[in-house]
Specification:
The protein is an alpha+beta fold. It is about 20% helix and about 25% strand. Strand 2 and strand 3 form a beta hairpin.
Length: about 220
């Protein structure tokens, strides 16, 4: 008979008992933490809960077949002992130093794929931080790599047009409680973003005309 935590060491140091040819090797849970290993003509009912007694923890009919059962009992005891925290740890200050990024209640689609219009299947969302007021859909390369997500300021980026080489943006919009991305292949940018920081050729021509008229007057 042995205690749960001592069974592996106890039976490892004892001489092996030879059972009859048609007998079984059995480890019986006799009481709550008491176990008995012996030979038996038939196996007892298997233990189905930790509180059950007079039941079989292991029963087999080959030499050394209970070694694994003993070893697992020893491993379980060791793991429980290591995992138990010292009582003094309960006095530690609460984890108030953990830092989390504040959210602004707005979200965008967030995903990445490769293929023509593969982004139409994006269904994953992310909640944006206060420093990310925009949602964007970006064409990453000529290999039709696309990426969607929150953005700090996509209105100043290059937008995808017929002659534009990637990386460029197909969509740039103000994030809301629901993603503002259309994901349908249509250019979706705010009016201020389409103008961008540079003057268009048409506007430059118009200004030159005004200058010429002013010089003639």
């Amino acid at each position: 008979m042995c205690n749960y935590s001592d069974c592996n060491a106890m039976y490892a140091n004892n001489n092996t008992a030879q059972c009859a040819t048609d007998a079984f090797c059995q480890l019986l849970r006799y009481q709550d933490m008491c176990y008995v290993a012996n030979c038996t003509d038939s196996c007892a009912d298997s233990c189905v809960s930790d509180s059950q007694t007079n039941c079989s923890v292991g029963c087999c009919n080959t030499t050394g077949c209970l070694n694994g059962t003993f070893a697992s009992m020893n491993m379980t005891t060791t793991m429980v002992t290591v995992a138990t925290p010292p009582m003094t740890q309960s006095t530690r200050a609460p984890t108030t130093t953990a830092k989390t990024t504040p959210k602004n209640g707005k979200q965008c689609h967030r995903d990445q794929c490769t293929g023509e219009k593969c982004y139409t299947g994006f269904e994953t969302f992310q909640t944006c931080s206060p420093s990310e007021p925009h949602c964007q859909l970006q064409k990453m390369s000529d290999k039709l790599e696309w990426k969607a997500g929150c953005a700090k300021n996509c209105s100043a980026e290059t937008f995808c047009k017929a002659s534009t080489k990637p990386p460029c943006l197909l969509e740039c919009c103000n994030a809301t409680s629901e993603s503002c991305l259309w994901l349908n292949g249509t250019l979706n940018v705010p009016s201020s973003a389409t103008r961008g920081p540079r003057l268009t050729a048409e506007l430059m021509a118009f200004l030159l005309c005004l200058l010429a008229l002013a010089l003639l007057l």
